[in-house]
Fold:
Amino acid sequence: MEDTPKHFIGRLFGFSIGPLVSAFIGFLMVPVTTYLISPSELGKSSMFTMAFSISSLFIYLGMDQALVREFSAIKDKKQLFWTAFVIPFGFSIIIGILYLIFYKSISLLMFGNIEAYIIKLLAISLPFATIDRFNMLIIRMEEKAKLFSLINIINKLVNMIMLIIFLLFIEKSFIGIINATVLSLVIMCFIENYINKEYWKSKINFNIKLIKDLLGFGLPLVPASIITWIFNSMDKMAMRKWANFTEIGLYAAAFKIVLVLGILQQAFNTFWAPTAYRWYEKGVDNEKFSKVSKLLTGTMSIIFVLIVLFKDLIIRVLSPEYYKAAVIVPFLLFYPLMYTISETTTLGISISRKTGYNIIVSAISAVVNFIGNYILVPKYGALGASVSTGIAYIVFFWMRTLISRKLWFKFNLSIYFWNILFMFLMSLTDVIFNNSYLDLIFVLIILIINKYTITSIYKFIKELGAVTRE
Structure:
């Protein structure tokens, strides 16, 4: 597989088109959803989304990440697939049964009242989530960029159709949203199974040594996943305790805007893992990894400051009930920003297979987030939760980066330091003063810091134009 700049960008674009189109469809659905249901109903549906997302991360037992790590190193892909899949699938069924047994406690924690039907949906969705996860990993690791994007687009279209049907004709509440989400997941699993039928029809084949290797990589991620669950859901749990469903709804609405960067996070992370591990197995020079990280940091930083600058205009696509969500956006942007950039700086941890360090990273970040939420949410609600989340993800980035740098090679840190510093200052002044002129000053500073990125993008576009004309 070629790795010229043209082919590199081509594959990245192939993986990006799906999330971009999906996000556009989702963006069109934002005003529909916010006009059809109230912030409190949207807040309740986000509690289900949180429980589903965190459960999905936990039930894989790190075997999904182990499959990603070993895919480029192991020849028998079907054996790797079955070895990695069966244990998480069985575990997802066990967790689902536990949810059904303790549905009252779980429901009270999530909604403050008993919603047995919703917990049943959550339990049923977990095995399907496992099937969906491993189907998409196979397509992703085979670097079938266009197919991966097509499935993402189909997924969003199916979800949109189901959502419109349920909200308009069946159940105009959070239950309607959840029904649409689960039904869409089941439909997509059948589509993906057909696409990956070569794997599903192959003989179930286990390798005991491979199981041990995969578990050795994946199991340290289990406690890290538990801590990450606490870390990622702490903002919503804090608002559930110290705020109200309206604040949670505003927070969820702000996340819709943050998804602009989240699109790039999803697209790049999907593309980067198979590419990075393949490069490592081929012995590619470390400078190539650093160049990608530098360009990504510049690109994400520029998009970050532009979103902050125009957030008040972007937020106007929502119902007037949600306009207050604009002030929540700046610090929330650090979540996708820091996570995405750290994917290029944290490779040393996964390459060395010392995944136990993820426990340290998650634990320290979670403690920072807990302290931030405890101090800020009772007084500032959703805004306080966003500030706490932003600061915690900055800590998350630096922990991952510094540990990886020690395990891998000593790459330069200055580009990260200056970008993060001025983005943090911009977010802080925007929340306090909300002054467009101050925002413009920070935009200018970020552009100057990332002149290398701007120049590189310009040169690439110019070269691409020259090739196209020929």
